[in-house]
Structures are given as structure tokens and as C-alpha cells.
């Protein structure tokens, strides 16, 4: 498959940003986040891109794998929690303003699909819920959506508006998600299974259509995600 390495300077984080792209700028653009501590090459290194190769080679999707900023933000205990969440917000601006715009232009699409595993699923879900007009599909693989532990008891408005468990119950416009295809994938051996169920309960209470896929013999690791993502793509 066609693979491209991209690097550019982004004013949102005042540094260079890196990304891998797989495909020929055809079909549905899929932005795929790495897991905790992962870099832009992680989804390739652990075989998730190869698992999706039939969809890429047939021109059904083009996958965009952006870098992460978790070590600079969420996991950076050297800075104040308020600065951690500000770093996260800057990262989100890179994704929405730089990555989304680039992917939409390349694939001539109005919206992008978005996915990730574990903490990568948090990034996908949080962006999807915060910027629903930009997202057509949300595919969560063993999502971990609770971020309070990253902030040592500190809380402010920025943390609230990046905590789906906090802001989703209070939304007054759930119709904004009507167009979105939402999949929450988990399994009986998944150590974050309870988080997918918790998020599903909130979406159900708000009347937001979604699919909670609780799989047998499925846990929290790459071998399961390599099965899950291609299956969900085949049903989209």
C-alpha cells in the first residue's frame, strides 16, 4: 500500500508535528490515534494498518496516523495540571485544524472517521463529541475515557470540557450526533470494559444512537484490536 511520512510546523503547539498516511487519498478518511505513550508509527508497528490493508488497497479508506502528545500533556508531572490540559487542548487543535482539514481536502470529504484503542479511543471519542460536525464515524477499541487521574485532584473548566463522563450528561443538543456512526468495542477480558459500558449508558440516556459491541473472548491488546477494527469498517 502507499505510505507517506508527513512533517510540518504547527503554530498550535509551536513545534513540528509528524504523521503517517496509508492509502491513495481515496474513500473515507480515517484518523487513527496511537495508544498511551505511542507515536505516529505505533499502529503500523503493531499490525493494525496491515489488518486494514484490504480496505486501503481497494480505495475504501485512507488512514491518517497522527503523533500523540500524551507525554507532553496528560503524563507530564513536571508541569501544573492546568498546563497539562492546556497542552492537550493545543494537541486537539492540531488534529481538528491541521489533520482533519488535510484529510478532508485529500479525500474530498465533508467529515472524517476517527478511531483509536485504549487512550487513543479517548482522544477519538472526545474529539467526536466536541466537534461532531467534523466526524462521520467514531470507532472506539477498548476505550479508556476517565482522565481525572491525570490531574492530581485539580479541576477546572478545561478539564470538565474534556471529560466525556462529565459534559455528556449535561448536553442539551444530542441531535447533533444523529449523523454519526458510533461503535464502542469491548470484550469480556477487557480491563476497561466498564468504561465502555459507562459511556454507553450515558449515550443511551441522552438518546444518542450507538452500538455497544461486547465481544466474547476479547481483551485489551493488539491481537484483539486487529480483529475488531477491520470488522467495524466492514459494517460501516
What this model shows, in words?
With 236 residues, the chain is an alpha/beta fold. The protein has one domain: Rossmann fold, CATH 3.40.50.1820. Helices cover 37% and strands 25% of the residues. The chain has helices at 42-45, 48-51, 53-57, 81-107, 119-130, 157-160, 164-167, 193-205, 222-235; strands at 3-10, 15-22, 28-33, 61-66, 112-117, 135-141, 181-189, 211-219. It has an eight-stranded mixed sheet with strand order 1-2-4-3-5-6-7-8, with helices on both faces. Helix 5 (119-130) links the parallel strand 5 (112-117) and strand 6 (135-141). The protein is globular. The mean pLDDT is 97.
**CATH hierarchy class name:** Alpha Beta
Structural class: alpha/beta
Total count of domains: 1
CATH topological fold name: Rossmann fold
Q: What amount of the residues lies in strands?
A: 25-35%
- Provide mean pLDDT, rounded: 97
**Overall radius of gyration:** 17 Å
Q: Which regions have little confidence, pLDDT < 50, spanning 5+ residues?
A: none
- Give the CATH architecture: 3-Layer(aba) Sandwich
User: What is the name of the CATH superfamily?
Assistant: Alpha/Beta hydrolase fold, catalytic domain
Helical residues, percent:
25-40%
Please count the beta strands (DSSP E, at least 2 residues each). 8
Please provide a brief summary of the model.
Helices cover 37% and strands 25% of the residues. By secondary structure, it is an alpha/beta fold. The protein has one domain: Rossmann fold (3-Layer(aba) Sandwich), CATH 3.40.50.1820.
Amino acid at each position: 500500500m502507499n505510505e507517506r511520512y508527513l512533517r510540518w510546523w504547527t503554530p498550535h503547539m509551536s513545534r513540528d508535528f509528524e504523521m503517517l498516511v496509508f492509502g491513495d487519498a481515496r474513500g473515507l478518511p480515517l484518523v487513527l490515534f496511537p495508544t498511551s505513550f505511542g507515536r505516529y508509527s505505533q499502529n503500523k508497528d503493531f499490525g493494525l494498518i496491515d489488518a486494514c490493508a484490504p480496505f486501503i488497497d481497494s480505495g475504501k479508506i485512507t488512514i491518517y496516523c497522527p503523533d500523540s502528545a500524551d507525554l507532553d500533556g496528560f503524563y507530564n508531572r513536571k508541569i501544573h495540571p492546568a498546563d497539562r490540559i492546556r497542552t492537550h487542548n493545543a494537541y486537539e487543535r492540531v488534529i481538528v485544524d491541521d489533520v482533519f482539514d488535510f484529510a478532508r481536502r485529500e479525500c474530498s470529504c465533508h467529515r472524517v472517521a476517527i478511531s483509536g484503542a485504549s487512550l487513543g479511543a479517548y482522544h477519538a471519542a472526545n474529539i467526536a463529541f466536541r466537534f461532531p460536525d467534523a466526524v462521520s464515524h467514531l470507532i472506539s477499541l477498548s476505550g479508556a475515557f476517565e482522565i481525572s487521574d491525570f490531574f492530581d485532584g485539580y479541576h477546572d473548566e478545561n478539564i470538565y470540557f474534556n471529560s466525556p463522563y462529565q459534559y455528556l450528561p449535561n448536553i442539551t443538543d444530542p441531535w447533533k450526533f444523529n449523523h454519526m456512526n458510533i461503535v464502542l468495542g469491548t470484550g469480556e477480558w477487557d480491563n476497561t470494559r466498564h468504561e465502555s459500558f459507562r459511556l454507553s449508558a450515558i449515550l443511551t440516556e441522552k438518546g444518542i444512537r450507538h452500538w455497544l459491541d461486547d465481544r466474547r473472548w476479547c481483551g485489551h491488546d493488539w491481537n484483539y484490536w486487529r480483529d475488531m477494527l477491520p470488522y467495524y469498517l466492514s459494517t460501516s
